[in-house]
Fold each of these.
Amino acid sequence: MKRLLISALSVMTAFVSLSFLPVRGEEAVYRDLIRFHVVAASDGEEDQRLKLLVRDKTLQLLEERLEGVKDRKKAEEIISSAIPEIEDAARDALLAAGADSPVEATLTREEYPTRYYDGFVLPKGEYTSLRVVLGDGAGHNWWCVLFPSFCTAAASRAEDDYLAAGFSDEQFNVIRRDAAPKYKVRFKILEVLSDIFGFSY
């Protein structure tokens, strides 16, 4: 009886875990975006100014490389291969400003808080991220969306940029509407059957 009860509880736990899934479209926000994160050496006024110089230099370098790129995987390859140049460009910007701080750039996975961009919202979660750390990395951050480019794009261009990069209208609505992923009860077996037979539930 005890074994039967444990088995039943295990099945119920697995069932409940599969039943609460993100509404369709939300997973693409985490999967298809590449974020950009610059961390200042400190919160001092000069280090914060240098952070913005490095930001501008990095964006200038990558916007040229990513111009016209619509495929997320291709964008990640371009950014990854440019890491040494990104670090060199950041050091050049620092030296030109009379500073000589270490620079470390990595393409990694990072947790981001909910962020608002000109009326658009990106939910809290883990994203692929170009992370550039200056010095001790003890200062305030600067971040944006590197791909599809939203670091300098006006809000009026945002939807075109995202749709051109492969987002559906439904996926784009996630960042236009929501501050955090919304969840609904979804039965896994019905989801599979709906994909096969084309009905909605």
Amino acid sequence: MNINLKATNMELSDSIRDYVEKRITHLGKLLAQHEGEVNIDFEVSKTTNHHESGKIYRADCNVTMFGPGGGMFYSSSDQEDLYAAIDDVKDKIFKEVKRTKSRKQALWKKGATRLKSILKGLTKR
């Protein structure tokens, strides 16, 4: 799993870096079952330099999975607090990955059930 962290219009401090890496490792546990390579591009930014209040912090995350069963997931969030934006993006990406994983498992189970019913029909004749 490769993590690329980028900051735009702001300084990337060690505390922000540690916070993002801690949140992304939870996502890494979910993606650990993927056989191919996983790239995570995470960007934190300050949208404007002259505003002092409002939704001025932005976090973007792009997850790319290569290999069999790969895919792309993207999420972004604008918040008043940078840490809240990071948490929001992490939650959205986590939900999207879990939903896709559940769909693939349901499709696999549905196909296996159908194949089993076809085989049972062949043996009865």
Amino acid sequence: MSLAPLFNPKKRKPDPKPARVNLRIVIGIGLIAWGIAFLYIAIVEMWIKQALPVYPLLITCFGLVIGVLLMLWEFIYRDKYYGKPEGKRRKR
């Protein structure tokens, strides 16, 4: 093992390319999880136990709102992070 890459950045290996991830699936799974948590709190805690859990309801609502906003962001900026590389352009 050589210590040269620590002292000389030119001797380092190039960084790997970032993985292409479909964020719609990741955000969708998160929205499903927050939705299940919201339904559990709304049904079990409020109707069956007759309790009013204000903070858990607020937390799950904020989770759902943030998930919807992230899905909107992903819809608007999808081409920017998942589209064609910026360095390669077509010649005319």
